Amino acid sequence: MSARADVHTFVFADLAGYTALTEAHGDEHAADEAAAFCEAVRDLLAEHRAEEVKAIGDAMLLRAGEPARAAGLAERIVCGYGARHRGLGVRVGLHTGTAVRRGDDWFGSAVNVASRVADAARAGEVLCTEATMQAIGPAVPVRDRGQHTFKNLANPITVYELVLARRPELPIDPICRMAIDPEQAAERRLRNGVEYFFCSERCASTFDEA
């Protein structure tokens, strides 16, 4: 029997800089980081009355019945795990719309749109569609990020950035392009009055050779 299409808010979260991490430190290290990210997200689901739909490599698709709880979950993921991690940031996309369940999976345009919106986010950002912004209401401040055209979507979509209580932007390793917590940097260099931070001795050595 077909399930009825109801309104849900989907949260698509993934690790920004994951490809760079894989290239710099190898597949096994990257896989461990993806697993740690997924476990950290799972620990938050019950508190926000959300559920995991599936994990896809370094990304997770989540569902929440209440848009405000979905926004709260997204903020915890970005400002919690994302802010603490010395090498990777997290980006999140939200969309509210209809979807149907088949077994343990969800299908519908709302799922696809959430994924596309996440692609437009930078590390440390939560972006949402107008549908989610209106469903959340004025409790969460947002910035208008304008219209975006996404692959396989016929019409442009207006995207909003949730204004989060986040820590300052972290410096970037100039070799692997990963965000670095200065307090946990493996190496640092001072060149022409500019201080550079590195995630590993390997990146610092490459910088020295260059």
Would you kindly provide a written description of the structure presented here, covering whatever features stand out?
The protein is of the alpha+beta class and 210 residues long. β9 and β10 form a beta hairpin. It contains 6 helices and 10 strands. Strands 1, 2, 3, 4, 5, 6, 7 and 8 form an 8-stranded mixed β-sheet that branches. A two-stranded antiparallel ribbon has the order 9-10.
In short:
The chain has six helices and ten strands, in the order βααββαββαβαββββα. It is of the alpha+beta class.
Kindly report how far apart the N and C termini lie.
Answer: 63 Å
Structural class: alpha+beta
Sheet having the most strands: 8 strands, mixed
Give the integer mean of the pLDDT values.
85
Query: Which descriptor suits the 3D outline?
Result: elongated
Percent helix, as a range, is 25-40%
How large is the share of residues in beta strands?
Answer: 25-35%
Strand/helix succession: EHHEEHEEHEHEEEEH
| Number of separate strands | 10
Taking pLDDT < 50 over at least 5 consecutive residues as the criterion, the unreliable ranges are none
The Cα radius of gyration reads 18 Å
Q: How many helices? A: 6
